[in-house]
Amino acid sequence: MRAALVDTFNELTREKMNEGLERVAKADEAATAVNKLLRDKYGIEVTLITVENPSSYQQYEQIVRQRKDTDQEVAALVQEQAQELAAKAKQVEDETKKAEIVKTTTVATNKVLLNEAQADKDKKVRTAEGYRDTTKADADAKLADQLPPSPKANESRGRPMRSGSSAWPSRSAAPAAASSSRPSMRSASRR
Description:
It is built from 7 helices and no strands. The termini are far apart. 76% of the residues lie in helices and 0% in strands.
């Protein structure tokens, strides 16, 4: 029977023992445990167990109060540190998100700039190619105007070429033609 009482009240801490409601609840629990033992063996029933306010030396009670206050302060500090850590973690998370947004924005901006530069390059290449083609066509046209007509062109105009002659004057024919049209210096000095 004593063991049932001790086991039940040992579940309370010193602080809980000072609280009346906890002490009364444990007293009712202890009465139930004691009644099981006494009623079965002896037929006796306990209706009420009364526990007085525990008392101890003043120094011991003061130490218990100090410990309780210290535990509360430690709990408050632990909670404050946990809140600070949570705030720092949130701040780091926010900064990470901001950095990711900046990175994504920069990548997107760079892609847009790259696409614009590529489009500008393509436009300049097409413009240069068009200019080249136009200039080449103009140069080909000027060259065609300056050159004597080709044999095929002569045939298409109805002038057949003589065999053995070419559209280009020969080198030997050019000086001979030039010398026959001008008097030579030797002949001019003899006169």
